[in-house]
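Annex B, item 7. Sequence and structure tokens for protein A, then protein B.
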Amino acid sequence: MAFEFDAIPLIHELSAGVPDEVSNLCTKCLQLVDEEDTTPVTTDLVKRAGKLLRLPSTMQQSDAKAGSVEVNGASSPTGRLIARMNGEVIQEQSLDRERTLIGRDERCDIRLMNSPVSRRHALVVNSSNGVKLVDLGSKNGTFVDGRQIKQYTLQDSDVIVVGDCRIEYVAGDNR
């Protein structure tokens, strides 16, 4: 089975890089290829599979709902994350993009140099259904208000704990 070159980054984009969503989208693509007896997996087929799975990024394109929908290249305010270590603010990140990656890796938007933090620990995704926090299979887990989560829709003032770091979610344009 072959995938078009452009189909692979599209799968990553539509699934927001969330491993379970990547798997579900790839499975749906392969089902469509089997049903339609076609090869390779094209970008059009990936888009159709995303719509069938009702992935947030494909729904935003078709529903054009407010929240984190792009308008002339700018996203409406969806909030910010304030990372604290030992009570001191170490980083503040506006959630003006579709995805915000948290972890130790140098490519992370919120970079936490802390041994209990995985390289790619958690992902914050702006969707038409709210701001979602997804644990990316981290070794030590991601917690919100004291409960371990796999996926969670953030609410104003929620406190995310990743390793020894506490990250407060501030919804909207609140200062």
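Protein B:
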Amino acid sequence: MQLHSIAGEYAGFFIALITILGLVVGSFLNVVIHRVPKMLQNDWQRDCCELLEVENKTSGDIYNLLKPDSHCPKCKSPIRAWQNIPIVSYLFLKGRCHQCKNPISIRYPIVELCTGLLCGYIAYLYGYSEQTVAALFLTWALVSLTMIDVDHQLLPDNITLPLLWLGILINSQGVFTDLSSSVFGAIAGYGILWSVFWLFKILTGKEGMGYGDFKLLAALGAWMGWQALPLIIIMSSLVGAVIGIAGILIQGRDKNVPIPFGPYLAIAGWIALIWGDTITQQYLQFAGLQ
């Protein structure tokens, strides 16, 4: 994978610009994270009511990523533009609603900050290239999927499937890998976790993961090629095992409560995109295979 680390007169300006873009997009991702599961729930309820031929008693008001306008969940006061500046507004308002002083979750500025920093690093690493544009879209999707899965143990098809097809599309131009590796990466990504799912179910009678995990790994395979899949699977499994065991030992979490696997796949996938080649080379040297 060819990198385009930037230097020169306008490098700092470019990185700062992309970082600010990331902060703004991170603010919008908070909306995506909050509303997409509710939109899906509304769609499922409508479909169930139609199938059962019963009245849908939920509100008929428009609910999507744009409507209704953002407002305080407690007092319903609208959030003005000056109250919605990434991170700055949270600090200015001291983490509370301007109207009713209800606390605002610290997670909102954290998502904004993390998205901004990730985007800035991508700009630094790939410079003025098509890889930067593609990696930004992948990053935004992975941030959204991570937080939605944490909240709802759900990886929505309306994010994972377009992400998969977009990965194949950009690699038809060889942006991160060749088209053949992309297609086989998508097939292998889905097939590996699908096989693990059914093997675990046959042996235990339980479902160890959701179908959304299959689709997310397929999407990551489409973006980075089948060659990246072993690294992604190993890293996500190790991190998931460590965090899961720590949660049981330290927090006393019930071991029967399912833990979402999507965030670990997303984190491992982003790391593989950025540092995958370096990690692989270091491992081969350490193992004496190179």
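Comment on protein B: The chain has nine helices and no strands.
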